[in-house]
Amino acid sequence: MKYKLSVTKGFASAHCLREYKGKCENVHGHNWKIRAAFGGTQLDKTGMLIDFTDLKAHLDKIMTYLDHKFLNETAPFDKINPTAENIALYIFEELKKAETLTAKVAEVEVWESDTSSATITAE
Ligand SMILES: Nc1nc2c(c(=O)[nH]1)N=C([C@H](O)[C@H](O)COP(=O)(O)OP(=O)(O)OP(=O)(O)O)CN2
Ligand SMILES: [Zn+2]
Question: Which residues bind Zn(2+) (predicted)?
Answer without folding.
Answer: 15, 28, 30
